[in-house]
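Supplementary Methods, section 5.1.

A reviewer requested that the exact input to the structure prediction be made available. We therefore reproduce it here, unchanged from the version used in the analyses.
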Amino acid sequence: MSTRVVKVVVAAALAIVAGLYLYGFVLNRPEPTSAGTRSGSDGDVRLHISGATIQGLADGVTAWVIEADSVRSGRRGDVTTMDGITHGEIMRDGAPYLTFTAGQGRYTRRNEELALIGGVEFWQEGKPMLRTEQVIWKPAESKAVVPGEAVITTGAGEATVDSLQLDVSADRIHYAGEMLLKLADSKRGVTVTGDNIVFDPTTESFESSGPTTIEFELDE
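The structure derived from this sequence is encoded token-by-token as follows.
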């Protein structure tokens, strides 16, 4: 069962976290004048903190870390929203696996999932890896799901797919359907269609099982 603990450091008062159920810890704090306060105008917001770092735990192990411009929680604490993610980390075995930025993050306590929304970009070991508009990180399954179009960056060029799943534990990207690879050294493209295509980010190689079609664009 996942561990849920919250610590919010605001000035010298730790008691402000009573009733706030975040999935992680707020590790740093803003200036005292911008500390978390109860909202008087928005009845849905219980706590709002300007400038914070959130650390999410799964089974006592760090699953993700987010630095955001602001963090807010609903009255029931079911959903925690992080706006303006300037730096984030997806963890594997307690160590950073991917870093990312995004417009917003939403942690849902009910299913213990973290959704990244708006201009999501991932890097692996400092190199661009993936960009899309929405990613759902499922720590319990060690899986990141991209339900919409995504662009995978490789040394050969950029590959566009309709959707994908990133298996963090195995370090593999899975997708089915059509992939368009635009070669970096020319204007040509390669279209690969298959039911089960796997991309290895480390070797930047693709493998396909089952019927697969490859179409090459030729220079005229």
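The first strand starts at residue 25 and ends at 26. These observations are discussed further in the main text.
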